Amino acid sequence: MKLIKLLFWFAPVTALATGDGSGCTGGTIKNPLNICSIPELINLILGLVIDIGLPVVALAIIYVGFLFVSARGNESKLSEAKTAFLWTVVGAAIVLGAFVISNVIKVTIDNL
To answer: Is the pTM for the entire model greater than 0.70?
Structure first.
């Protein structure tokens, strides 16, 4: 069973290694993404995460501001707004730290 999981893991890596004449080396399978390595794929995925995540974070901050304004001094609603603000900041840190994580993974793979 582990061998089958391992084959499913390495099959996309093999497909990514094939080229279409755009500088990638490989066989006859056409690569529609023009990505030649795993670090390039990770950078592409994390770029999409940031492109989608930053507007979501902005909307979440606006929503948290609305929660604070609508609380009007009610302690239970204020604590709910504070909790939402905390998790919005944590999510923003994760989204903004995506490229740092990407660069750490890229350097690690390059050193292997």
So the answer is: no
